[in-house]
Amino acid sequence: MNESNSPMILVADDDVEDQEMLMEYFLGGGLDRKDVTFVTNGRAAIEYLQRHDTLPKLVVLDLKMPIMDGQSTLLHIKSEEKFKRIPVVMYSTSSNEQDRRKCLVNGALEYFVKPSSYDEGEMMANRLIEFLQRQV
């Protein structure tokens, strides 16, 4: 896979509606569909990273997913030399401070509670796009 075909963001989220909303937020923030790749669980995210030479500039992980949850995926990414420099952001319905703190301690760049309004979603997407711009 070459640089022009590689996504800027890899998102692992098992909820198709959340994927669609997140894509809307990204499109509103100026990204293109080709800039974002979705997978439905943490294992699929790890497999994606292992299969591609060009890595995404940002990984967004849902905390609660089947097969391999976001916390386990975060730990795996941060433990592998090839992946540990990829910024990882957690994205969850949980506003539990313990969940948030644990993710940040384990290497997450940020922890977002899934937005409850379109405006909140746009603000979150803009923050994620800012993270991308720092990587360029």
How do the strands and helices of this protein lay out in sequence?
Layout: E1 9-12, H1 16-28, E2 36-39, H2 42-51, E3 58-62, H3 70-79, E4 88-92, H4 97-105, E5 110-113, H5 118-135
Parallel strand pairs: 1-2, 1-3, 3-4, 4-5
Helix pairs in contact: 1-5, 2-3
Describe this structure in words.
With 136 residues, this protein is an alpha/beta fold. The protein has one domain (3-135): Rossmann fold (3-Layer(aba) Sandwich). It has five helices and five strands; from the N terminus they run βαβαβαβαβα. The chain has a five-stranded parallel sheet with strand order 2-1-3-4-5, sandwiched between helices. Helix 1 (16-28) crosses helix 5.
> What is the C-level CATH assignment?
Alpha Beta
Based on the coordinates given, report the CATH architecture: 3-Layer(aba) Sandwich
What CATH calls the topology is Rossmann fold
Distance between the termini: 19 Å
Helix content: 40-55%
Counting DSSP E segments of at least 2 residues, the number of strands comes to 5
Instruction: Please tell me the overall pLDDT.
Output: 89
What is the molecular shape? globular
Rounded radius of gyration (Å): 14 Å
Largest sheet features: 5 strands, parallel
Query: Beta-strand level of the residues, as a percent range?
Result: 15-25%
H/E element sequence: EHEHEHEHEH
